């Protein structure tokens, strides 16, 4: 096959994730690499999200390191400093639900209808409902603001928001058959969730300043990074407070996709990070273990 001549390397997701899915994909990738006698690169799923911003950077040059990275999806909520390929500092993560999971749970709680398939989902439907809602009509607390120690930490928490929303609906006996009520509730939830995220990213900016890390940008990636309200608030935070741009991949590259894995393979291949055909999948794989002597 002529196309084989154009392939330099086979990149495949190695982890983290569901063992069955990872195992099947990695087996196929290893078999293909071996059959074509091509180098193999096992990609860390979160590094792939983080590095996609370098591929889609609006200028001809790649986005330079270091940059602050917010990875937000249905399964992950992470704040990282990307110092370089294979080199990350973990600043914060969710201690319970991810932001995407929280959006989905609240959408189901409010019985918001959504379209299944491409471009749909409960989280996206909630965002659309929230656009025409009044975020001041109701009130729920921003997570982790009552306790000073938790407020000053860079970890996040979203499970309490569902409890707060449930309590609000029950105490005020709100009618979830009324779309206007649901729009106001969706907007109320989104305002609290976004405030929580921006508060923690602000702490991350301050940490980097204290450590004299010259950030070039704030990168937001992952499926939830396609949320326009989240992007707008992060952009204001990055540009107005810290004089760096917000860089987000286009929405179709924010969700899990093959392009990001291929690009991470390119980035790792360029710096000589090639794996053996015998590598195994890693369902639980901290991104900070990349580049360490203890990395798998």
UniProtKB/TrEMBL annotation:
One of its GO terms (cellular component) is mitochondrion. The keyword Acetylation does not apply. GO terms for molecular function: metal ion binding; tRNA N(6)-L-threonylcarbamoyladenine synthase activity. GO terms for biological process: mitochondrial tRNA threonylcarbamoyladenosine modification. It catalyses: L-threonylcarbamoyladenylate + adenosine(37) in tRNA = N(6)-L-threonylcarbamoyladenosine(37) in tRNA + AMP + H(+). Transmembrane segments: none annotated. Keywords: Acyltransferase, Metal-binding, Transferase, tRNA processing. Gene3D superfamilies: 3.30.420.40. Its EC number is 2.3.1.234. The keyword Transcription regulation does not apply. InterPro entries: ATPase_NBD, Gcp-like_dom, KAE1/TsaD. Residues 5-263 form the Gcp-like domain. NCBIfam families: gcp_kae1. PANTHER family: TRNA N6-ADENOSINE THREONYLCARBAMOYLTRANSFERASE, TRNA N6-ADENOSINE THREONYLCARBAMOYLTRANSFERASE, MITOCHONDRIAL. This is N(6)-L-threonylcarbamoyladenine synthase.
């Amino acid at each position: 096959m002529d196309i084989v001549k154009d392939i330099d390397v086979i990149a495949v997701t190695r982890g983290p994730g569901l063992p069955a899915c990872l195992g099947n994909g990695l087996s196929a990738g290893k078999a293909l690499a071996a059959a074509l006698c091509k180098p193999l690169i096992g990609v860390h799923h979160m590094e792939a999200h983080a590095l996609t911003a370098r591929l889609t950077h609006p200028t001809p040059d790649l986005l330079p390191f270091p940059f602050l990275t917010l990875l937000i999806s249905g399964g992950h909520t992470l704040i990282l400093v990307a110092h370089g390929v294979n080199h990350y500092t973990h600043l914060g993560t969710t201690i319970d639900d991810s932001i995407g999971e929280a959006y989905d749970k609240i959408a189901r709680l409010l019985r918001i209808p959504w379209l299944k398939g491409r471009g749909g989902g409960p989280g996206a439907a909630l965002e659309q409902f929230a656009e025409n809602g009044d975020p001041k009509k109701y009130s729920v607390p921003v997570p982790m603001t009552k306790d000073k120690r938790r407020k000053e930490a860079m970890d996040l928490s979203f499970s309490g928001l569902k409890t707060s929303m449930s309590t609000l609906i029950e105490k005020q006996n709100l009618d979830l058959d009324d779309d206007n009520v649901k729009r106001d509730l969706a907007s109320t939830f989104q305002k609290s969730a976004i405030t929580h995220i921006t508060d923690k990213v602000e702490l991350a900016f301050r940490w980097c300043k204290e450590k004299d890390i010259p950030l070039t940008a704030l990168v937001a990636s992952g499926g939830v990074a396609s949320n326009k309200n989240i992007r707008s608030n992060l952009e204001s935070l990055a540009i107005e407070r810290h004089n760096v741009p917000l860089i987000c991949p286009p929405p179709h590259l924010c969700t899990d996709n093959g392009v990001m894995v291929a690009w991470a393979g390119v980035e790792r291949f360029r710096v000589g990070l090639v794996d053996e055909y015998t590598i195994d999948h890693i369902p639980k794989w901290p991104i900070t273990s990349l580049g360490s002597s203890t990395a798998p």
